[in-house]
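Model it.
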Amino acid sequence: MDPGTKAGTLILAALLLGAGACAQKEQIVIFATARSEGRLEARPVPSLSNQMAGGFAVFKKLYDSEKRPKLAVDAGNWFSPTPEGWITKGRSAIACMNAVPYSAAAAGMEDLALSPADLQKLAESSSMPLLASNLYLRNGKKPGFMQSSSLVRAGGRKIGFFSVIIASPGKPNRARNLPKYRLEKETYETERSLKALNDAGAEVTVMLLSVKPGESAGKDFFRDFLSRVPKIDLVITDEPSVGRPYRVNRTWVARAGLGMAEAARLTLTLDPATGRMTDLDWERLPLYTKKYGEDKAVLQLTGEYRAGAAAHFLKRLGFLNDPLPLAENGTSPVGDFAADCMRRWAKSNAAIIGVSEPAAGFSSGTVTLGALYAAFPRDSSMVFVKIRGDDLEQALAGLQPGEISVSGLRLYLKGGALERAESDNGPLSPGRVYRLAVPDSMVGGRDNPVLSRAMEFANSRRPVRDIIGWCFSRQSSFSRPEGGRITRNQ
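Modeled.
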């Protein structure tokens, strides 16, 4: 045979072998997002001048550009402390996901701040199944408007989805009573959901695992959790510490794109004969507007929500004669103001608030609802506390004086430590019971000095932010609150 002919034959054979190998490769793409928190549109990228990224209109373009069998899923937190998420109670995010369209979405921990009635409205407005496998109402019943699992078809294959909400990765597999719901043990609900999906013929099983924001679920958590449950093919989580995907036994663990600034593209390779998952490729894709463009229909939808939110947040609340800075000479004027409002609303003897509670101060002049949300973005609620005078003084000694603002109290420090505390009526009386108002952000944890010494406490379920708004509504204008509440002596 001619050498040239022989070489050509070998090349052709190699190409045919390669084509045969490709023919045996079956893939499905899952796009995953999480923690949109009401962020609907593109925003400037701080590290890149003149570059915008994020939003559902960009994600829609990215999703439509994928030619392989595909679906989109979301791991929750549509309603959250951000103003955009709060005003629509998650409806704006669900509407945008409907427009993509997504195939499944899972409720996150922040979504459980919604009442069952509001969460039901979200579910009824959703074109995709909303999942929450371990979620129960306080009466012990499953919420009928949420699903424990869902079977979705992609590329002719049956992909089974279910979801679990993790309230505390450090204390896993425990039932949790929340203000409006109950979370059952995640292993028990995982077993139930997997059985239902396998009985329905799922070829690939996927868990959407939502971790409470502010908590952290490391590899040890996933190793322990996945060792206790039947085999899951893929876990998609909103846990930020998960970088590149990794395997725990036979289960892949991968992260969703967060904050609608990015999306994760997960390419699942399947065995053509059985449909079982054999490999995973993961990409983090920043949603750059210049790269992908923006879908016009979704952009119009988000624009309508943005216009409604802008009008709402321009609502006038009150007037300040003086600015209230976030920090000034070791004090927090806006913190002092908030403490005064809490004390006034609760009709308490005193109020304490952490200086980390406000995120910004107020300018002088008209105060709008938008300014209130910018200053107090957290969803902390106010807690009523009853405590004896001697226990109150010990509790104050256990706090960092430079990290709190107070109302109805005067703290005298010496060498940076509390020397004594007084109420507006003089020294604290050891045996007297004082009524105290504090945000729940200050009283979490087992070693908290306030709750560990309290006689009684009860959460009002009223957000501190709403209390400050109420304060503005009570009079026409406010001046800067009186200072001198914390006296430092060398």
